[in-house]
Amino acid sequence: MIMDDGIADAGARNEEAPLGLRSGRLNRRSFLVGSAAGLGAAGLAGCVSSDDMMRAEAAKLYGPVPNDKFAIPAVDISKVDPRYFRQKVRYESKEAPGTIIVDPGKFHLYRIEGDGMATRYGANVSRPGFLWSGEVYVGRKAEWPTWTPPKEMIARQPEARKYAGGMPGGLENPLGARVLYLYKNGVYTVYTIYSTSDPDTLGQGITSGCTGLLSQDMLDLYARTPVKTKVVMLPA
């Protein structure tokens, strides 16, 4: 996989620089699987931690997806901090249900569900120098998209030149199984919310303005996010 110190410039294709986004550094771009009583019947209630129970439930959420266009492998959840598992959480917001809020300081993405609740996903976010904040929206969506490195990335990483004509969708494609392209005033910002199969990236600042979720989480978010959905990027 071509990586630009992360997923730099992922999804860009000769688009203009981001418009109207606030940044002084802006460049381009519970879980419970059973009751204690049930476990107690097996004599194990005192031996199973809440973390063990969370991981048991997470193993179901992050299992393999064999029937997509390309078979998506299971996530090695031993590599994921439990705080980054997908879960429903209390989250007070004035935003409408469906709105996406990215909190890069906490490495979380929230989908507002209403009634003070949100679905929270673990994420990777921008690295220093590419952080930004502001309001954008989902301008288009794609499944297993083609990725074309922009000329700025090719200048930094000449090995990316072989994909100047586009890298077909697939497991090695930096955008992964699903992508939401973020727009401002009708113009593509070059930023995306994309999918990754690398759990080691969660909780990391690695991209040039994009936000990455585990593929299984991205499948969930993508299916519930129509074009025109508002996206709010909080200050780091």
UniProtKB/TrEMBL annotation:
<dbReference type="InterPro" id="IPR019546">
    <property type="entry name" value="TAT_signal_bac_arc"/>
</dbReference>
<dbReference type="InterPro" id="IPR006311">
    <property type="entry name" value="TAT_signal"/>
</dbReference>
<keyword id="KW-0961">Cell wall biogenesis/degradation</keyword>
<keyword id="KW-0133">Cell shape</keyword>
<keyword id="KW-0378">Hydrolase</keyword>
<keyword id="KW-0328">Glycosyltransferase</keyword>
<dbReference type="Pfam" id="PF03734">
    <property type="entry name" value="YkuD"/>
</dbReference>
<keyword id="KW-0573">Peptidoglycan synthesis</keyword>
<dbReference type="InterPro" id="IPR050979">
    <property type="entry name" value="LD-transpeptidase"/>
</dbReference>
<comment type="similarity">
    <text>Belongs to the YkuD family.</text>
</comment>
<protein>
    <submittedName>
        <fullName>L,D-transpeptidase</fullName>
    </submittedName>
</protein>
<feature type="domain" description="L,D-TPase catalytic">
    <location>
        <begin position="98"/>
        <end position="234"/>
    </location>
</feature>
<comment type="pathway">
    <text>Cell wall biogenesis; peptidoglycan biosynthesis.</text>
</comment>
<keyword id="KW-0808">Transferase</keyword>
<dbReference type="InterPro" id="IPR038063">
    <property type="entry name" value="Transpep_catalytic_dom"/>
</dbReference>
<dbReference type="InterPro" id="IPR005490">
    <property type="entry name" value="LD_TPept_cat_dom"/>
</dbReference>
